[in-house]
Structures are given as structure tokens and as C-alpha cells.
Amino acid sequence: MADSKMKLHCGWIFGNSAALFCINEKGLDFELVFVDWLAGEAKTKTFLSTLNPFGEVPVLEDGDLKLFEPKAITRYLAEQYKNVGTNLLPDDPKKRAIVSMWMEVDTNQFLPIASTLIKELIIKPYQGLATDVTSVQENKEKLSEILNIYETRLGESPYLAGESFTLADLHHLPPIDYLLNTEEEELKNLIYSRPNVAAWVEKMKMRPAWLKTVVMKNHIVDLMKQRRLPIKLDSSSHDLTVVAQKTAVAIGNN
After folding, report:
1. Which one, of 27, 19, 20, lies nearest residue 235 by Cα?
2. Can you tell me the distance from the alpha carbon of 124 to that of 107, in angstroms, rounded to the nearest whole number?
3. Which of 239, 237, 204 is nearest to 17 (CA)?
4. Are 167 and 22 in contact, with CB atoms under 8 Å apart?
5. Are the C-beta atoms of residues 143 and 117 closer than 8 Å to each other?
6. Which pTM value belongs to this model?
7. DSSP bridge pairs for 34
8. What is the rounded average pLDDT for all residues in the chain?
């Protein structure tokens, strides 16, 4: 009999945090399966053939359904478990369209800039590679322009899509959190020098679901070092039970 427990295969990067954040907003029980994608664990034959042919995380398993891509995962969770936990998608078609619009803004405007900065300032140093200083400066300037637009929008409503927290906001916080945790004071100033943006970020960071997500992110960082999987997480509790395998993860043709 197949295991029907929800599973999230994920690793260390903001798209994974968005999926975790959404699960926590919904208060769902699930099993987190750690995948060290930086070490190539998402590129094994088994992973490519059974979970994601593109070799990326996160991947959600819910019964016989397998989903990859963070926004596909969070939208599914918001719709499938609409009456559980936080309502992340409005019923009204017009309000829902505004949520979708700001999710597209995230995908096409904000995320490419944030992703480049995270790559240059966090991922490359972790891999022992040199940071492209020119790219960092160029993208800081682009980010400043984007945040000016956000500042205006958030002066009209407390959240991007209106009066309530939605998927549009949820997907922005993980990359913002990574940017705030770099050593670049200029990036922090870009966010906190804009009062409406700063208030929006701080409100999201205080959400119980995000605080729980941060705990899980920290454990994922630990697992990157320990090379253990999976860890079982009960959304009704902040306690994390780590289930360590006796053997190391095999990289290559598994």
C-alpha cells in the first residue's frame, strides 16, 4: 500500500521556503525529505525519473499527485485545502485576479533580480566562487526601482493584493529574507528605508507560520552538513523529530 502522507522534497533555497511557508499557513502535517541539490542529489536518475525531470526542488507528493515548481505547489495547496488554515486565495474573481497579477510581478519583475543577488552574495560564496561585483551593483539599482513601485502600492493597501495576506505576499518573503541575511547593508537599507515596504516585511516576518518556517530552514541548513534524510515534521508542533538514515546519500546513478 502506497504511503499517503504528504511529502515535500526540498533543500536550501527560497523557492523551497515558499512551499514550507504555505504548508505552515495551512497547518498541514507532512514529511519533509531533504534534498541537497547543491551536492547533486536532485540530478540522480531516480529523482529525475520519479520526481522532477528538470532536477530541481521543491517537489510535493500528495497521495498520487506529484508537483514541482513553487507557485504550482502553493496554488494547489491554497485551492485543495481552501477551508484549512489561512485562506490564501480570495473567492471573488476580481480579487483573485489581482493576486495572480502580483504573483506574475514577482515572477517577472522582482524574482529575477532577487535571484541574481542571492546567487552572487550567498550561493557563489558557499560554493567557493567569486562574486560578480558589477552584477550585484546593477541589480541593486534595479531592485531599488522595483521597491519604489512596491512602496506606492503598499501605501494603498497593507498587502500587495489588498487587505489580506495572500499567495502574492507569501512568495515575496522568502527571497526578501535571504537578502536581509546577507552582509550587504545597502540591501537592508533598500528595504527598510521605505516605510510601507518595511512595515509589510515586518508583518510577514511575525506570522506564526513564517516563524515555524524559519525553524525548519535552520534544520535544513544543519542537514546539509549532516547529510541525513528525511526529517518528519508535525505542523501542530514546533518540535522537529530528525530521522537519520544509517547510510550516506548516494550521488550518481541511484
Report:
1. 27
2. 22
3. 204
4. yes
5. yes
6. 0.86
7. 10
8. 87
Give the pLDDT score at 236. Answer: 39
184's grid cell: 550587504
Contacts of 39 (CB under 8 A, 6+ apart): 249, 251
Burial class (CB in 10 A: 0-12, 13-18, 19+), 43: middle
pLDDT class for 222, splitting at 50, 70, 90? confident
Angle at CA of residue 47, ends 44 and 53, nearest 5°: 100
Whether 61 and 7 have beta carbons less than 8 Å apart is answered as yes
Q: Find where cell 513564517 sits.
A: 210
- Nearest CA to 238 among 223, 218, 224? 218
- Rounded-to-integer distance, Cα 205 and Cα 203, Å: 6
Secondary structure (DSSP) of 197-219: HHHHHHHHHTSHHHHHHHHHHHH
**pLDDT at residue 36 above 70?**
yes
